[in-house]
Amino acid sequence: MDNKTKGLVLVLCGLIFLLLGVTMPLAAVLKGILLGSSLILNVSGTVILMNYIKTTKESSR
After folding, report:
1. Cys-Cys with 41: which of 4, 14, 27, 46 at CB 3.0–4.6 Å?
2. Number of neighbours of residue 38 by Cβ within 10 angstroms
3. What are the UniProt keywords, alphabetically (predicted)?
């Protein structure tokens, strides 16, 4: 799996957890776990995608 696909999968999983955390009536602890994991997945995916864009840009020069 290349970095582009890996980053997109992490961001999409983070968005799914965010939607679940916002829409479902859950206890505060579970909502915190869902939103925390959403934040971690989104940031990780974004960093991977930014590195992919950087390396693609450098290799095209």
Report:
1. 14
2. 20
3. Membrane, Transmembrane, Transmembrane helix
Q: Each residue of 23-60: pLDDT tens digit?
A: 999 899 999 999 999 999 999 999 999 999 999 988 88
Give the pLDDT confidence score for residue 59 in this predicted structure.
87
Helix (H, G, I), strand (E, B) or coil at 7: helix
pTM of the model: 0.88
DSSP label at residue 61: -
The domain spans of the chain are: 3-56
Instruction: Say yes or no to pLDDT of 61 above 80.
Output: no
DSSP track, 11-55: HHHHHHHHHHHHHS---HHHHHHHHHHHHHHHHHHHHHHHHHHHH
